[in-house]
Amino acid sequence: MDPAKRAEALRVQLNHHSDLYYNEDNPSISDGEYDVLMQELKAIEQAHPELITPDSPTQKVGGTAKRTAGVLVAHRVPMLSMQDLFSREDVDHFVEDCREKLGEEITFLVETKIDGLSMALRYEKGKLVTALTRGDGRNFGEDVTANAKVIGDVAVKLKHPPEYLEVRGEVYMTNADFDAVNEKQELLGKKPFANPRNCAAGTLRQLDASITKERKLSFFVFNVQDIQGKELGTHQEAYDYLKSCGITVMEHYFVCKSREEIWQAIETIGELRGTLPYDIDGAVIKVNDLSARSQLRDTAKNAGYQVAYKYPPERKETKLLRIELSVGRTGKITPTAVFEPVRLCGTTVSRCTLHNQDYINGLGICLGSTLLIEKSGEVIPKCVGELPEKRPEGAQPFQIPMVCPVCGEPAVREDTADIKCVNLNCPAQLERLIGHFVARDAMDIKGFGAVYVHDLIQEGYLQDVADIFTLFQHREELIEKGIIGKEKNTDKLLGVIEKAKGNPPARLLTGLGISNVGKSAAQALMNHFGSFDALMAASEEDLVAVPDIGPISARCVFDYFRREHSRTVVEKLKAAGVNMEQEIIAPPAEDLPLSGQTVVITGTLPGMSREEAAQLIEKNGGKVTGSVSKKTSFLLAGEAAGSKLTKAQQLGIPVLSLEEVQKKLSAE
User: Fold this and answer.
1) Rounded distance, CA 603 to CA 639, Å?
2) Global pTM exceeds 0.90
3) How far apart are CA 474 and CA 208, in angstroms?
4) Within 10 Å of residue 319's Cβ, how many Cβ atoms?
5) What are phi and psi of 645, to 5 degrees?
6) Could you tell me which of 434, 500, 496 has the C-alpha nearest to residue 465?
7) Over the stretch 109-131, which tens digit does the pLDDT of each residue have?
8) N or C end of the chain: smaller count of CB under 10 Å?
9) Residue 173 contacts by C-beta under 8 Å, 6 or more apart in sequence?
10) Strand 634-637 to strand 655-656: parallel, antiparallel, or no bridges (unpaired)?
11) Does residue 285 contact residue 303 with C-beta atoms inside 8 Å?
């Protein structure tokens, strides 16, 4: 691939993942995967310096300053990142480079690198006056003073204080405190946090200090940013002084001189992984002499006096206890490994998906196998191997039975790797199908939670999705049994169901859960055929002729409407008065204002839903997609636009408000 094109593609990927990690506290790939992409970009830019751009991830700190926790505060001292190293050769090179510039007698300090959120504290005459996050690293951070003051490890008042002191450290959560928070989240029916780092970052940035106090964040200081009224010679001396002031500093650190001592310290810290009450993701090597640091040049992104050695992804061995089979709403049978619990990236895990039979065969997984487990994206547990030498004698790879584990009906393997139950009346499929049907992207029946779905199926009120629209016939029974709640709650849900009958038919088609037919495909089909009657009568050739509908989706739609059960459900929906027709949207004429343009919508639009905005764009010849890419013509952005806005700005894609789009259309 052309180096310029590959560099640009890598910048887009890295900026996107950096935004998820630093600003959204919701990473989708692991640190290791991110580091591989970053190393590739660095290699390209090193070979082709003319390709380096100011907004390249190699040239800037990953975060941006947001106003979620408070006002923005200007940095007095930059809070820069560190260069990541991955081998002993890289570490030795850094050490030798420092010696060449600073002298052979220079010493280094090696310490744990905690996986948390960076925060600076400013003290005036011993009193904590400001706490701020790293933000963009150079210009602004977020004011989190109120939250910082309720963290137990943060000293609000110092002993033996200097005139002015600014320190930098890491906010984190111990594994025990993280488990306690997630346990409470589950009890409250809320989504658990993915890992301690995400929980700590989200907690520090929210507005209620009482929540911060309750969640028991922790804090270590790892650097003196600025000090007035006290002279300090080395980093070790700074730690001793900070401890005398009552400040909590890093627990594990080693002063080293030779390359061998430094590497031994790195290995010692590496052996601590899994034994400490908190997560570490590397070891930091920094020049110990504070005055000498100024002779080492910083880059736009990284401090010159320190680097971070990153350990390989954490993996654990564990014994497979059993394989459980579950059935999804499309009938797919998914095998899940249940193994002896292990601790990974701050959480205890005991389960992970094995995907399908091909995946099981590829790894050679047998009952009783010893598995290698790691976390994909540091969030999702993943089996990455099986140890043949520890496999039970004579064991064979596990075979998924060709029988549905829920209803007992035969299962089939189609063209894909998936094994499916094709019984549409399977209870497991029904519960998940109805949950999908009432969800936001389908019929959007708000308040129809999973508990209601389960109980209504168990009580016999729901045998297919069409039965939702006849629940009003059982109002008195539902109130008497309290399945949905008392009279007020029951009537509220029945009212939302009644209103949903008028939804656009594309929502209904999405909700039916037809394989390979999501929201976009459903919209394309309804725009083309206009009614369910016409869609049901269509041949495979008719379906394939629809823009954006491929042969697999066409086959799935055709097969679905050939089944007697599917036709019965459609007739019941029609009888209940559910909207099944819309105006056919003709293919856009070449002279329409947005002909040939691809648009992405994000944020909350003033006075118009996203669905209405999409219809407006499509009526004017445009095409609406869900993700930003180089092919996007412009982004229609409302309030609280998130990562899509960031990506559009990174790609240089025009960003328009609804008012600007309306003016654009009226001017044509």
Assistant:
1) 5
2) no
3) 43
4) 12
5) -65, -45
6) 434
7) 999 999 889 999 999 999 999 99
8) N
9) 116, 181, 196, 197, 199, 200, 215, 216, 217, 218, 278, 346
10) parallel
11) no
